[in-house]
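your task:
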Amino acid sequence: MPRRSASFIVSSIAAVALGAAAVSTAHAEPARISLQVHFNPNLSVIGEVTKNFVDNVQAIAGEDIRIRFYEAGKLVPTFETLTAVRDGNLDAVHGWPGYFMGTIPALTLFSAVPFGPNADEYVTWMLEGNGQKLANEIFNANGVHALFCGVIEAEASGWFRKEINSVEDLKGLKIRYAGLGGEVLAKLGASVTVLAAGEIFPNLERGVLDATEFSMPSIDRNLGFYKVAKHYYFPGWHQPGSTAFLMMNKKKWDGLTPRQQAVLDVACRAAVTYELARGIGEQATAMEYYRSQGINIHSWSPEMMEIFRKTSAEVMAEQAAKDADFKRIYDDQQQFLKGVRGWSGIGMLRQD
């Protein structure tokens, strides 16, 4: 697929910002929001965007919104944050909704889909298609209100201790892989586990894991995987684009004034632009570093990519057959992509 320009997002954000500024600034009770994140601010791109979001909220709202910030795992384990938000034990979480796939399968469609939307396509589906509306149908039913609040381009496909040349090499491989991509590898015979960011390196170093994926090259560099695993694979077929959401307790959201809600919405839209630009901009330096360290950078063979594609289609069909919400949302996403790609395939210049 050709890379698409993200410049159109800027005008959208500017328009929303002007609208927010026009909302009445009459005195209202200040909002106090406890916010835990999935990724800490010292983590490239996906952590930095949380600081960008909080800083923008404070700059726009001043004393009208005060966010009490908690790092990943500080109050609640990462995989339990949605339950904590639903139950009112935490006001909000910023992060990746794919971590909650086990309890709400449809949420993974708003997170990352194998051979699915890239970053620009996620932005378009979320803001111009039915994405945001469908997301809140699922979130609201679980006591949460969500705002699309970040996006990155394709991740790397993972770090492996040994070279992978065939499907046979995946069988029995102990690997950390998240979301639907993990379901694909499990179907191909790998032993798949999901771990939060801070738990991955120790397990890789001790040999509990043979391989791992996490995110983009600059983010993976922060986590040090290259010190242990020397084979780095591309492209990230499992996550062509990955999102972030602000997920807030529904009663807390409903209790905000229209202005306070607008500030959070504007700050999230700004975060989308920031994370997309930052994510693309950081990767060249990271890749140069890996080459200087003698890391073996691989591209999956056409044969392996076809196996991943075929198996992904099987996984998606199985998930849709098991969950009506998953099927309904996946059908909408695929129909939307068909139209978008019908134009972009002929209307946009290929850069390769």
Q: What stands out?
A: Confidence is low (pLDDT under 50) at residues 1-26. The chain has two domains: 8-153+239-282, 158-238+295-324. The first strand starts at residue 31 and ends at 37. The longest helix spans residues 258-292.
